[in-house]
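1st attempt posting a full record on here, be nice pls
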Amino acid sequence: AVVSTQSTGDAEAKEWKPSLVLLRIERAATYIRWSQSEDRFAVGSGARLLSICYYDEEHDWWVSKHIKKPIRSTILCCDWHPNNYIIAIGSCDFKCRVFSSALKELEDKPEVSGWMPKLSKFGTLLAEFDTSEGWVHGVKFSPSGDKLAWVSHDSSVNVVDMNSKEKVLRCLTKTLPLLSVIWLNESSIVCGGHDNYPILYNVVGGDALVHGARLDINQKKAGGGMSAMARFKQLDDKGTDDKGTTLDTTHQNAITELRVTKFDGGKAKQFTSSGNDGKLVFWDVDVLASSIAELKI
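the predicted structure (as C-alpha coordinates):
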Protein backbone atom coordinates (compact mmCIF):
# COMPACT_ATOMS: atom_id res chain seq x y z
CA ALA A 1 0.00 0.00 0.00
CA VAL A 2 1.04 3.61 -0.60
CA VAL A 3 -0.05 6.98 0.83
CA SER A 4 0.52 10.00 -1.44
CA THR A 5 0.83 13.43 0.16
CA GLN A 6 0.56 16.67 -1.78
CA SER A 7 3.37 19.16 -1.21
CA THR A 8 2.65 22.72 -0.11
CA GLY A 9 3.41 25.83 -2.15
CA ASP A 10 2.22 27.27 -5.45
CA ALA A 11 -0.50 25.36 -7.26
CA GLU A 12 1.71 24.75 -10.28
CA ALA A 13 4.61 23.50 -8.15
CA LYS A 14 2.58 21.05 -6.06
CA GLU A 15 3.55 17.41 -6.41
CA TRP A 16 2.32 14.16 -4.95
CA LYS A 17 4.91 12.37 -2.81
CA PRO A 18 4.32 8.63 -2.21
CA SER A 19 5.15 6.96 1.11
CA LEU A 20 5.26 3.22 1.74
CA VAL A 21 2.71 1.59 4.07
CA LEU A 22 3.78 -1.49 6.03
CA LEU A 23 0.47 -3.34 6.35
CA ARG A 24 1.99 -6.72 7.30
CA ILE A 25 -0.99 -8.75 6.06
CA GLU A 26 -1.00 -12.05 4.17
CA ARG A 27 -4.46 -11.74 2.64
CA ALA A 28 -6.14 -9.15 0.44
CA ALA A 29 -7.18 -5.78 1.87
CA THR A 30 -10.98 -5.44 1.74
CA TYR A 31 -11.76 -1.99 3.21
CA ILE A 32 -9.96 1.23 4.09
CA ARG A 33 -11.09 4.34 5.97
CA TRP A 34 -9.28 7.48 7.20
CA SER A 35 -9.91 8.72 10.74
CA GLN A 36 -11.57 12.08 11.42
CA SER A 37 -8.25 13.81 12.13
CA GLU A 38 -6.54 12.16 9.15
CA ASP A 39 -3.54 11.18 11.26
CA ARG A 40 -4.27 7.45 10.90
CA PHE A 41 -6.32 5.06 8.83
CA ALA A 42 -7.72 1.57 9.19
CA VAL A 43 -7.43 -1.32 6.75
CA GLY A 44 -9.64 -4.39 7.00
CA SER A 45 -8.53 -7.60 5.31
CA GLY A 46 -9.11 -11.26 4.75
CA ALA A 47 -6.34 -11.99 7.26
CA ARG A 48 -8.85 -11.76 10.15
CA LEU A 49 -7.25 -8.63 11.54
CA LEU A 50 -7.57 -4.84 11.44
CA SER A 51 -4.49 -2.73 10.64
CA ILE A 52 -4.35 0.73 12.21
CA CYS A 53 -1.72 2.71 10.29
CA TYR A 54 0.07 5.87 11.41
CA TYR A 55 3.00 7.91 10.07
CA ASP A 56 6.55 7.29 11.27
CA GLU A 57 8.36 10.54 10.47
CA GLU A 58 11.82 9.18 11.30
CA HIS A 59 11.69 6.55 8.56
CA ASP A 60 9.24 8.36 6.27
CA TRP A 61 6.74 5.51 6.05
CA TRP A 62 3.44 4.41 7.53
CA VAL A 63 3.55 1.59 10.05
CA SER A 64 0.66 -0.51 11.32
CA LYS A 65 -0.50 -2.04 14.57
CA HIS A 66 -2.85 -5.01 14.44
CA ILE A 67 -6.11 -5.74 16.21
CA LYS A 68 -6.62 -9.51 15.98
CA LYS A 69 -8.69 -10.99 18.79
CA PRO A 70 -11.53 -11.90 18.75
CA ILE A 71 -11.97 -11.34 14.96
CA ARG A 72 -12.59 -14.71 13.28
CA SER A 73 -13.29 -13.86 9.65
CA THR A 74 -12.84 -11.32 6.85
CA ILE A 75 -13.51 -7.67 7.75
CA LEU A 76 -16.00 -6.09 5.34
CA CYS A 77 -16.37 -2.55 6.73
CA CYS A 78 -15.23 -0.14 9.42
CA ASP A 79 -15.99 3.37 10.67
CA TRP A 80 -14.24 5.81 13.00
CA HIS A 81 -15.87 7.44 16.00
CA PRO A 82 -15.83 11.28 15.86
CA ASN A 83 -13.33 11.35 18.75
CA ASN A 84 -10.71 9.65 16.51
CA TYR A 85 -9.82 6.97 19.10
CA ILE A 86 -12.61 4.39 18.72
CA ILE A 87 -13.38 2.26 15.67
CA ALA A 88 -16.27 -0.05 14.75
CA ILE A 89 -15.94 -2.96 12.33
CA GLY A 90 -18.26 -5.46 10.64
CA SER A 91 -17.09 -8.88 9.53
CA CYS A 92 -18.09 -12.21 7.99
CA ASP A 93 -18.33 -13.90 11.39
CA PHE A 94 -21.73 -12.20 11.86
CA LYS A 95 -20.35 -9.71 14.41
CA CYS A 96 -20.24 -5.95 14.75
CA ARG A 97 -17.47 -4.92 17.15
CA VAL A 98 -16.18 -1.70 18.70
CA PHE A 99 -12.48 -1.38 19.62
CA SER A 100 -10.19 1.16 21.23
CA SER A 101 -7.66 2.48 18.70
CA ALA A 102 -5.77 4.85 21.00
CA LEU A 103 -2.07 4.80 20.10
CA LYS A 104 0.60 5.46 22.70
CA GLU A 105 2.97 6.19 19.80
CA LEU A 106 0.87 9.29 18.99
CA GLU A 107 0.34 10.12 22.69
CA ASP A 108 -3.44 9.73 22.40
CA LYS A 109 -5.51 10.80 25.40
CA PRO A 110 -9.14 9.85 24.70
CA GLU A 111 -11.96 11.00 26.93
CA VAL A 112 -14.15 8.45 28.67
CA SER A 113 -17.64 7.89 27.25
CA GLY A 114 -20.38 5.32 27.04
CA TRP A 115 -18.27 3.40 24.53
CA MET A 116 -15.12 3.67 26.66
CA PRO A 117 -16.15 3.94 30.35
CA LYS A 118 -12.48 3.92 31.38
CA LEU A 119 -9.27 4.56 29.50
CA SER A 120 -8.48 1.46 27.48
CA LYS A 121 -5.32 0.43 25.72
CA PHE A 122 -5.05 -0.17 21.99
CA GLY A 123 -7.07 -3.13 20.71
CA THR A 124 -9.37 -3.42 23.72
CA LEU A 125 -12.79 -4.82 22.75
CA LEU A 126 -15.33 -2.24 23.96
CA ALA A 127 -18.53 -3.80 22.60
CA GLU A 128 -19.66 -6.77 20.51
CA PHE A 129 -23.02 -7.31 18.81
CA ASP A 130 -24.17 -10.58 17.26
CA THR A 131 -26.26 -10.45 14.07
CA SER A 132 -26.40 -14.29 14.06
CA GLU A 133 -27.81 -14.56 10.54
CA GLY A 134 -25.71 -12.45 8.19
CA TRP A 135 -22.40 -10.86 7.31
CA VAL A 136 -22.11 -7.23 8.43
CA HIS A 137 -21.77 -5.20 5.22
CA GLY A 138 -21.90 -1.62 6.53
CA VAL A 139 -21.35 0.17 9.86
CA LYS A 140 -21.62 3.86 10.81
CA PHE A 141 -21.44 6.03 13.93
CA SER A 142 -24.00 8.82 14.31
CA PRO A 143 -22.78 12.46 14.01
CA SER A 144 -22.42 12.72 17.79
CA GLY A 145 -20.90 9.26 18.09
CA ASP A 146 -23.51 8.23 20.66
CA LYS A 147 -25.22 5.70 18.37
CA LEU A 148 -24.01 3.01 16.02
CA ALA A 149 -25.85 1.57 13.01
CA TRP A 150 -25.04 -1.46 10.91
CA VAL A 151 -26.63 -3.47 8.09
CA SER A 152 -26.33 -7.21 7.56
CA HIS A 153 -26.78 -9.80 4.82
CA ASP A 154 -29.98 -11.02 6.49
CA SER A 155 -31.63 -7.77 5.27
CA SER A 156 -31.67 -6.30 8.77
CA VAL A 157 -30.94 -2.75 9.93
CA ASN A 158 -29.61 -2.38 13.47
CA VAL A 159 -29.05 0.59 15.80
CA VAL A 160 -27.63 0.71 19.31
CA ASP A 161 -27.04 3.56 21.78
CA MET A 162 -23.80 3.67 23.76
CA ASN A 163 -25.74 4.22 27.01
CA SER A 164 -27.88 1.10 26.55
CA LYS A 165 -25.69 -1.33 24.63
CA GLU A 166 -27.74 -4.32 25.72
CA LYS A 167 -30.77 -2.95 23.81
CA VAL A 168 -30.27 -3.26 20.04
CA LEU A 169 -33.02 -1.79 17.86
CA ARG A 170 -33.49 -4.17 14.91
CA CYS A 171 -35.64 -3.81 11.83
CA LEU A 172 -35.89 -6.90 9.63
CA THR A 173 -36.71 -5.49 6.20
CA LYS A 174 -38.48 -7.04 3.21
CA THR A 175 -35.80 -5.81 0.82
CA LEU A 176 -32.76 -7.54 -0.61
CA PRO A 177 -29.59 -7.30 1.54
CA LEU A 178 -28.31 -3.80 2.28
CA LEU A 179 -24.64 -2.92 1.81
CA SER A 180 -24.11 0.60 3.19
CA VAL A 181 -25.55 2.93 5.83
CA ILE A 182 -25.21 6.63 6.75
CA TRP A 183 -26.80 8.97 9.29
CA LEU A 184 -28.72 12.08 8.18
CA ASN A 185 -29.09 13.21 11.81
CA GLU A 186 -29.28 11.62 15.25
CA SER A 187 -32.56 9.83 14.50
CA SER A 188 -32.61 9.15 10.73
CA ILE A 189 -30.46 6.79 8.68
CA VAL A 190 -30.30 5.96 4.98
CA CYS A 191 -29.38 2.51 3.69
CA GLY A 192 -28.69 1.18 0.21
CA GLY A 193 -27.96 -2.20 -1.31
CA HIS A 194 -29.14 -4.81 -3.78
CA ASP A 195 -32.54 -3.17 -4.36
CA ASN A 196 -30.68 -0.35 -6.17
CA TYR A 197 -32.30 2.57 -4.28
CA PRO A 198 -31.70 4.37 -0.95
CA ILE A 199 -34.17 3.77 1.88
CA LEU A 200 -34.87 5.94 4.94
CA TYR A 201 -35.27 4.48 8.45
CA ASN A 202 -36.12 6.43 11.61
CA VAL A 203 -35.37 5.84 15.29
CA VAL A 204 -38.64 6.58 17.10
CA GLY A 205 -38.48 7.54 20.75
CA GLY A 206 -35.34 5.52 21.29
CA ASP A 207 -37.46 2.36 21.44
CA ALA A 208 -38.06 1.37 17.82
CA LEU A 209 -36.44 1.47 14.40
CA VAL A 210 -39.07 1.86 11.66
CA HIS A 211 -39.13 2.05 7.87
CA GLY A 212 -39.48 5.63 6.65
CA ALA A 213 -39.65 5.75 2.85
CA ARG A 214 -38.03 4.78 -0.40
CA LEU A 215 -36.05 7.83 -1.51
CA ASP A 216 -35.88 7.01 -5.24
CA ILE A 217 -39.32 7.70 -6.71
CA ASN A 218 -40.41 5.60 -9.68
CA GLN A 219 -40.09 7.53 -12.91
CA LYS A 220 -42.08 5.81 -15.65
CA LYS A 221 -41.03 7.00 -19.04
CA ALA A 222 -43.72 8.10 -21.46
CA GLY A 223 -43.91 6.62 -24.92
CA GLY A 224 -42.35 3.37 -23.84
CA GLY A 225 -44.77 1.24 -25.85
CA MET A 226 -43.71 -0.68 -28.93
CA SER A 227 -45.77 -0.89 -32.12
CA ALA A 228 -46.59 -4.22 -33.72
CA MET A 229 -44.28 -3.42 -36.66
CA ALA A 230 -41.38 -2.50 -34.35
CA ARG A 231 -41.91 -5.65 -32.29
CA PHE A 232 -41.91 -7.82 -35.45
CA LYS A 233 -38.70 -6.12 -36.61
CA GLN A 234 -37.13 -6.75 -33.19
CA LEU A 235 -37.99 -10.45 -33.45
CA ASP A 236 -36.60 -10.60 -36.98
CA ASP A 237 -33.32 -8.83 -36.15
CA LYS A 238 -32.53 -10.24 -32.68
CA GLY A 239 -34.68 -13.33 -32.44
CA THR A 240 -36.24 -12.07 -29.23
CA ASP A 241 -39.08 -9.85 -28.11
CA ASP A 242 -37.10 -7.30 -26.07
CA LYS A 243 -39.51 -5.51 -23.75
CA GLY A 244 -36.70 -3.49 -22.22
CA THR A 245 -34.25 -4.12 -19.39
CA THR A 246 -34.14 -0.62 -17.88
CA LEU A 247 -35.18 -0.57 -14.22
CA ASP A 248 -37.38 2.17 -12.75
CA THR A 249 -34.56 3.21 -10.38
CA THR A 250 -31.76 5.75 -10.82
CA HIS A 251 -29.18 3.08 -10.15
CA GLN A 252 -29.34 0.09 -12.47
CA ASN A 253 -27.40 -2.19 -10.13
CA ALA A 254 -26.63 -2.58 -6.43
CA ILE A 255 -25.65 0.47 -4.36
CA THR A 256 -22.29 -0.33 -2.79
CA GLU A 257 -21.44 2.89 -0.93
CA LEU A 258 -23.23 5.88 0.62
CA ARG A 259 -21.38 9.01 1.77
CA VAL A 260 -22.52 12.32 3.30
CA THR A 261 -21.07 15.21 1.26
CA LYS A 262 -22.71 18.24 2.92
CA PHE A 263 -23.40 18.51 6.65
CA ASP A 264 -24.69 21.60 8.44
CA GLY A 265 -26.31 22.28 11.80
CA GLY A 266 -26.22 18.65 12.88
CA LYS A 267 -28.00 17.48 9.73
CA ALA A 268 -26.89 16.07 6.39
CA LYS A 269 -27.86 18.31 3.48
CA GLN A 270 -26.53 16.13 0.67
CA PHE A 271 -25.29 12.58 0.24
CA THR A 272 -24.01 10.48 -2.62
CA SER A 273 -24.48 6.90 -3.69
CA SER A 274 -22.24 4.81 -5.92
CA GLY A 275 -23.04 1.42 -7.34
CA ASN A 276 -22.05 -1.51 -9.50
CA ASP A 277 -23.60 0.27 -12.49
CA GLY A 278 -20.71 2.77 -12.44
CA LYS A 279 -22.93 5.71 -11.44
CA LEU A 280 -22.22 8.34 -8.78
CA VAL A 281 -25.52 9.99 -7.79
CA PHE A 282 -25.95 13.15 -5.68
CA TRP A 283 -29.06 13.33 -3.50
CA ASP A 284 -30.30 16.63 -2.01
CA VAL A 285 -32.03 15.94 1.31
CA ASP A 286 -34.24 19.06 1.19
CA VAL A 287 -35.41 18.24 -2.34
CA LEU A 288 -36.22 14.69 -1.26
CA ALA A 289 -38.16 15.94 1.76
CA SER A 290 -40.29 18.27 -0.38
CA SER A 291 -40.95 15.77 -3.18
CA ILE A 292 -41.96 12.71 -1.16
CA ALA A 293 -45.28 12.87 0.69
CA GLU A 294 -45.26 12.23 4.45
CA LEU A 295 -41.46 11.97 4.52
CA LYS A 296 -40.07 12.63 7.99
CA ILE A 297 -36.34 13.30 8.36
